């Protein structure tokens, strides 16, 4: 397929691009590099542009005869979305609607959307199934859910095939160590833990130690970034006009913050300093995915189900690139 990957120079997008190219697809990356990294993708496949630049988007779709789009381009810091919602609605929603209109103009009707478990808010039951009510509690989740609604309406009216993949905590790095996770600021637990192990930060702050969980800390479902990439490719290959997929992506197994810290200490052989702090507002005690639907409909099964295996790939990347892509 001829695929346009928006946000393809970002963390998850770059891993998806790597897989798509390895499988023989004709892949083009559309990224403004505000959050992505030029070094994460092949230079001859990168279109440096913003989704708000309608003419450049039209040109890319026509020039490369794009048949399908995988849409990763979004801001994804929950806290920032609360303090600066305009930024999130403009980029995550308005720019995505402009992208959908461009695809409609050029009759590109196959679309895979990077959604999130944040659309569920605080779930009534765990593991979370796709039947769980979607009640996001922050602007980030609101913008992602709004796009899901738009996709359903566009598909019904224009005969599109689309997938909305709601994933949980992306983690890990390419096993060969060539690309990995590099955010500024870093908000994901595993790279923060590894930075603390390397002495790059004084400690890992644990937000809340009095949750109703076995060790008092939050439990999350960590899914390897390559497993996410696999699911996106399977969704692309399964789509057809009028076919719609709305699926969770997770391992179905949760790990607490303390368990992640202990696993990182085992992998690195280093002590990870921890600082206990108060709960953050809106953090549910447990978020774990039920992924039966995606396994049934796409034949997808995560290869990485143990947290140590995920951390080992991340550790390989961080050891080789202690300053991220700036190395």
What's a quick, concise take on this entry?
The protein is α/β, with parallel strands linked by helices and 327 residues long. Helices cover 38% and strands 18% of the residues.
Keywords, separated by commas or semicolons:
seven-stranded parallel β-sheet; three-stranded mixed β-sheet; 10 helices; globular
Q: Secondary structure elements and their pairing?
A:
Elements: E1 2-6, H1 11-22, E2 26-31, E3 46-48, H2 54-63, E4 68-71, H3 78-83, H4 85-105, E5 110-116, H5 139-158, E6 161-167, E7 169-171, H6 189-197, E8 204-207, E9 219-220, E10 222-224, H7 225-238, E11 244-249, E12 255-256, H8 257-268, E13 274-277, E14 286-287, H9 292-298, H10 307-320
Parallel strand pairs: 1-2, 1-4, 2-3, 4-5, 5-6, 6-11, 7-10, 8-13, 9-14
Antiparallel strand pairs: 9-12
What class do helices, strands and sheet pairing give?
alpha/beta
Side-by-side strand order of the widest sheet: 3-2-1-4-5-6-11
- Topology, number of strands: 14
Rg over CA atoms, rounded to whole Å, is 19 Å
What is the string of SSEs from the N terminus onward? EHEEHEHHEHEEHEEEHEEHEEHH
For the termini, the CA-CA separation is 33 Å
Shape: globular
Give the mean pLDDT: 95
Written account of the structure:
With 327 residues, the chain is of the alpha/beta class. Helix content is 38%, strand content 18%. The chain has 10 helices and 14 strands. The strands form 4 sheets. The chain has a 7-stranded parallel sheet with strand order 3-2-1-4-5-6-11, with helices on both faces. A 3-stranded mixed sheet has the order 12-9-14. A two-stranded parallel ribbon has the order 7-10. Strand 5, helix 5 (139-158) and strand 6 form a beta-alpha-beta unit. Helix 1 packs across helix 7, helix 2 (54-63) packs across helix 4 (85-105) and helix 6 crosses helix 10 (307-320). It is globular and about 55 Å long. The two termini are 33 Å apart. The mean pLDDT is 95.
């Amino acid at each position: 397929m001829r695929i346009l990957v928006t946000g393809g120079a970002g963390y998850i997008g770059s891993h998806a691009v790597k897989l798509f190219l390895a499988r023989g697809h004709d892949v083009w990356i559309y990224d403004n590099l505000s959050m992505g990294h030029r070094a994460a993708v092949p230079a001859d496949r990168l279109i440096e542009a913003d989704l708000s630049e309608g003419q450049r988007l039209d040109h890319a779709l026509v020039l490369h005869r794009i048949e399908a789009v995988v849409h990763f381009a979004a801001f994804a810091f929950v806290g920032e979305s609360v303090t600066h919602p305009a930024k999130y609605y403009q980029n995550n929603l308005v720019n995505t609607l402009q992208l959908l209109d461009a695809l409609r103009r050029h009759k590109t009707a196959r679309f895979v959307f990077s959604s999130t478990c944040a659309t569920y808010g605080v779930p009534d039951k765990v593991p979370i199934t796709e039947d769980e009510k979607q009640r996001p509690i922050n602007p980030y989740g609101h913008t992602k859910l709004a796009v899901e609604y738009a996709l359903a309406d566009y598909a019904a009216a224009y005969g599109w095939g689309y997938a909305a993949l709601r994933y949980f905590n992306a983690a890990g790095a390419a096993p060969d160590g060539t690309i990995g996770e590099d955010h500024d600021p870093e908000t994901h637990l595993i790279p923060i833990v590894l930075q603390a192990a390397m002495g790059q930060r004084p400690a890992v702050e644990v937000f809340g130690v009095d949750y109703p969980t076995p060790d008092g800390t939050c439990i999350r479902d960590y899914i390897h970034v390559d497993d996410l990439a696999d699911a996106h490719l399977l969704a692309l290959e399964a789509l057809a006009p009028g076919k719609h997929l709305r699926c969770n992506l997770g391992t179905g197994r949760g790990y607490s913050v303390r368990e992640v810290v202990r696993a990182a200490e085992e992998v690195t052989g280093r002590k990870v300093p921890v600082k206990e702090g108060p709960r953050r507002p809106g953090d549910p005690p447990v978020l774990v995915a039920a992924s039966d639907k995606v396994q049934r409909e796409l034949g997808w099964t995560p290869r990485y189900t143990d947290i140590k295996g995920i951390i080992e790939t991340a550790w390989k990347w961080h050891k080789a690139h202690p300053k991220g892509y700036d190395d």
